[in-house]
Specification:
- Helix 1 crosses helix 3.
- The model has no long low-confidence stretch (mean pLDDT 90).
- The protein has 4 helices and no strands.
- It has one domain.
- The chain is mostly helical.
Length: 111
């Protein structure tokens, strides 16, 4: 697999990460079975997709997981703002921007 495809798969996995977290919250400790099943399916899909670019022949596990965690963290903050009306302060925005800059930096030096 070429590195470009690996990056696309990693981005998809990174987008799925906040989705399973939201489903887990919506399941209310698995009391709402549909949301709970969705959370389990999405976390398994996320981990499966993460395993593809994590091979040493592609991006590698350290960079892959770092990217996934960074995009996931930024995504869940955004979801918190949109879905739960959480306050988004300037400080939060500064640190989210730092995460995004870090992700771009890792991508640039990873080749």
């Amino acid at each position: 697999m070429d590195v470009g495809t690996a990056w696309i798969i990693l981005i998809i996995a990174s987008i799925i990460e906040p989705c399973w977290v939201i489903c887990l919250d919506k399941s209310e400790n698995f009391k709402k079975v549909g949301w709970g099943i969705s959370a389990v399916v999405l976390v398994l899909l996320c981990l499966y997709l993460l395993s593809i670019p994590s091979s040493p022949d592609n991006i590698g596990p350290g960079v892959s997981y770092s990217i996934l965690a960074g995009i996931g963290a930024a995504g869940i903050v955004l979801a918190g703002r949109v879905l739960y009306k959480e306050k988004l302060t300037v400080r939060k925005m500064v640190f989210i921007v730092m995460i995004v800059v870090g992700i771009v930096g890792v991508r640039l030096i990873a080749g």
